[in-house]
Write a structure and sequence with these properties.
The protein has 13 helices and 19 strands. It is an alpha+beta fold. The chain has four domains: 94 residues, Uridine Diphospho-n-acetylenolpyruvylglucosamine Reductase, domain 2 (2-Layer Sandwich), CATH 3.30.43.10; 116 residues, Uridine Diphospho-n-acetylenolpyruvylglucosamine Reductase, domain 3; 88 residues, ACT domain (Alpha-Beta Plaits, 2-Layer Sandwich); 89 residues, Alpha-Beta Plaits (2-Layer Sandwich). The strands form four sheets. Strands 15-12-14-13-17-18-16-19 form an eight-stranded antiparallel β-sheet. β17 and β18 form a beta hairpin. α1 packs antiparallel against α2, α7 crosses α8 and α11 packs parallel to α12.
């Protein structure tokens, strides 16, 4: 900040109330310590906070539950954290239309609890799902193991309300499913990591709750056997799994490979597909394997897959690979670490890897993984790592010619670069 600290505090407190402006003494974002955490109670208060911060040339970090503030590239500046946790209202919910408009600070868990009596849900399961706010999920385009069967936030967002750095607002999309003519601006903001505007309200389309969810697991001595089984399940014309994952847990005292297959449908359909899958896996894996149907509530297993970043290592990366190359690439990107956990989504080609390594080893391993991914037309995103690792490597792959276009878009929305400064691709 180039202007007076006390004056900025007074201006923000006048908008949100002194109880909702905290002079920060403990929150750190990588190596940065923001001066304030401000919590607007409405869209209009959020707009005013942005306008004031811009007037003081203060860099703003939009936040939801504040559990992933170190995601993406290391920030260049972080003066004020704009917390949306007070924005938790349901603006409009129309069960007959399968749509809902909510404020950005409402959590996914809170919304799905509200929608459950109507037998509806928003089928997303990003990392940190119990606490993740809907605004943060959309801003980061976060997704988990449901992606293959149910898609990503971009598939469910049909309308947004946004607060801009100059205090103005805009809306895109609407409150009905078929509302887009021309370019769908929802897709521009979804996944922009809060670098273009602050999302304050979201309209989603919903899905009916399924009658049944069931998971089959298989444990086998080697990864190739499970990989072939996963591919066979996906190739079967009569099976429609929502998730197909192979995981590898490597510890100093043990190695373990597991296959997880989840079905989400009507009770009769799930029962039929469970029986067919068990027969298929029994034929493929034969001896030296354990096949089981998990109890009805198998969420703990999928939580472990979605929370790969909490598996014990200090580095987490996410590789996006062509599905056809996944089985071959898996072996090439195994980290040379005593502690590692890999979760490979055979439906989408995404592998999340958590491993323990010092700085030099982590840099070497990530460079190797990035090279292997690029060789087959994929890429890698560094989800969690020490700031110095991200600063040397960049959280995302280089985007070459696209960087100029992306920087141009950023300048149009945020001329001074105050929103999440440096967080996104190409240091945007």
């Amino acid at each position: 900040m180039t202007d007076n600290h006390t004056a900025l505090a007074s201006a923000l407190a006048a908008v949100v109330g002194s109880n909702n402006l905290i002079e920060n003494r403990s929150l750190r974002i990588n190596t940065l310590v923001p001066a304030f955490v401000v919590s607007p109670g409405s869209h209009d208060e959020g707009r005013e906070c942005l306008k004031i911060c811009a007037a003081f040339h203060a860099a703003i970090v939009p936040a939801g539950a504040m559990t992933w503030l170190d995601g993406g590239n290391s920030l260049r500046r972080a003066d004020v954290v704009l917390s949306l946790q007070r924005l938790k209202r349901v603006i409009d919910y129309s069960p007959p239309d399968l749509t809902a408009t909510v404020e950005a600070g409402l959590s996914l868990q809170e919304f799905n609890q509200l929608a459950k009596p109507e037998n509806q849900w928003l089928p997303l399961d990003p990392p940190g799902a119990p606490y993740a706010t809907l605004g943060a999920i959309v801003a980061c385009a976060s997704h988990g193991a449901l992606r293959f069967g149910f898609g990503t936030p971009r598939d469910y967002v049909i309308g947004l309300r946004l607060a801009h750095i100059d205090g103005t607002e805009s809306k895109c999309g609407g409150r009905v499913v078929k509302n887009v003519a021309g370019y769908d601006m929802n897709k521009l903001y979804t996944g922009s990591f809060g670098t273009l505007a602050v999302i304050t309200e979201i309209t989603f389309k919903l899905r009916p709750l399924p009658e049944r969810v069931a998971t089959i697991t298989a444990t086998h001595g080697d990864f190739p056997g499970l990989a072939e089984a996963a591919k066979s399940v996906l190739a079967s014309p009569s099976l429609q799994p929502a998730s197909v994952f192979v995981t590898r847990t490597h510890r100093a005292d043990a190695d373990r490979n597991d296959l997880f297959i989840r079905f989400i449908e009507s009770d009769i359909t799930v029962t039929h597909q469970l029986n067919e899958t068990i027969t298929l896996l029994s034929d493929l894996l034969q001896k030296d394997s354990e096949i089981a149907v998990l109890p009805h509530d198998s969420s703990a297993s999928w939580d472990t897959i979605n929370q790969a970043d909490l598996s014990g290592g200090n580095v987490t990366v996410r590789l996006h690979l062509p599905v056809a190359t996944l089985a071959t690439a898996f072996a090439k990107v195994l980290p040379a670490s005593d502690e590692s956990y890999l979760a490979a989504d055979f439906g989408t080609g995404i592998i999340r890897i958590n491993f323990a390594a010092d700085e030099a080893q982590a840099i070497s391993l990530i460079k190797q993984m990035r090279a292997e991914a690029e060789a087959v037309g994929g890429n890698i995103f560094i989800e969690r790592a020490a700031p110095q690792i991200k600063e040397q490597l960049g959280a995302w792959n280089e985007v070459s010619d696209l960087a100029t276009l992306m920087r141009g878009v950023k300048r149009n929305f945020d001329p001074e670069g105050l929103l999440n400064a440096g967080r996104f691709v190409a240091g945007i």
